[in-house]
Specification:
Number of strands: 10
Structural class: alpha/beta
Distance between the termini: 34 Å
Shape: globular
Order of helices and strands: EEHEEHHEEHEEHHEHEHHHH
Number of helices: 11
């Protein structure tokens, strides 16, 4: 059985972590497959959105595989952490919009994988946390850096220092997730969002992702300059004329991609 499944339909690629018996825990094989898959999908012009989710009803990703980590040397742990971080940078740097569909436990590496995506949607049954301190280790796939940026330093400190889990509604309250959907219709609702995004101007979507990603790492003046440059470059792309013509002619746009 493949540890990862990929499906593509209607410009949406769905990556499914497929180790349900292990609550989709991340081992070396899974991370290597994911890194390769993410880089391959980034090159595809027929994919506008990438949805990441977990197989089974219990877990998105319950964390890194503890059996694998238990005997790692410091050097091996560094390499394992770098591979996990590389997976998330592959998601962040992909031109497509990435969505984490968190259907259950998203703990440790699972929470970190979710935070590597542009959008996080949670099932009402989802649970989030960075419980690494319970194992005598720290977050290793970027959790100590992305969590404060998403929910603020104070809440991130509390989550990482205590290792406690939070439920979907608390994740929504603190800004970790965009929306919470009922479990019975969860994936369908996520796909509705994905289809909406996939129907928009591909060039505008790509540039919106880049300008927000790059702008968050700088001050407001520089961020607005980044936005202005991308805004102007949209007018050099056929999508701008097609989008505005379609609006004025009261029809659906026919995007070039």
């Amino acid at each position: 059985m493949a540890v990862l499944e990929t499906k593509i339909s209607e410009r949406i690629a769905t990556i499914i972590f497929n180790r349900p018996d292990s609550l989709n825990a991340l081992n070396l094989e899974t991370l290597e497959f994911f890194h390769t898959t993410a880089k391959e999908l980034a090159e595809r012009k027929d994919v506008s959105v990438i949805v990441v989710t977990g197989a089974g009803e219990k877990a998105f990703i319950a964390g890194a595989d503890i059996k694998h980590m238990q005997s790692l040397s410091p050097l091996q742990a560094s390499r394992f952490g770098k591979l996990g971080q590389d997976c998330l940078f592959a998601l962040e740097n992909a031109p497509q919009i990435t969505i984490a569909a968190v259907n259950g436990f998203a703990l440790g590496g699972g929470c970190e994988f979710a935070m590597g995506c542009d959008l996080i949607y949670a099932s009402e049954k989802a649970k989030f946390g960075q419980p690494e301190v319970n194992l005598g280790i720290t977050p290793g796939f970027g959790g100590s850096q992305r969590l404060p940026r998403l929910v603020g330093p104070m809440k991130a400190r509390e989550m990482i220092y205590t290792g406690e889990m939070i439920d979907a509604q608390e994740a929504l309250r603190i800004g970790l997730v965009a929306r919470v959907f009922p479990a019975a219709e969860f994936l369908g609702k996520v796909m509705e969002v994905a289809k909406t995004i996939a129907s928009k101007g591909p060039e505008a979507i790509r540039r919106s992702k880049v300008m927000m990603r790059d702008g968050l790492g700088t001050d407001l003046v520089r961020g607005c300059a980044i936005e202005r440059d991308h805004f102007a470059l949209c007018f050099a792309h056929p999508d701008q004329k097609e989008g505005m013509s379609a609006f004025l002619e009261k029809r659906k746009p026919n995007w070039r991609d």
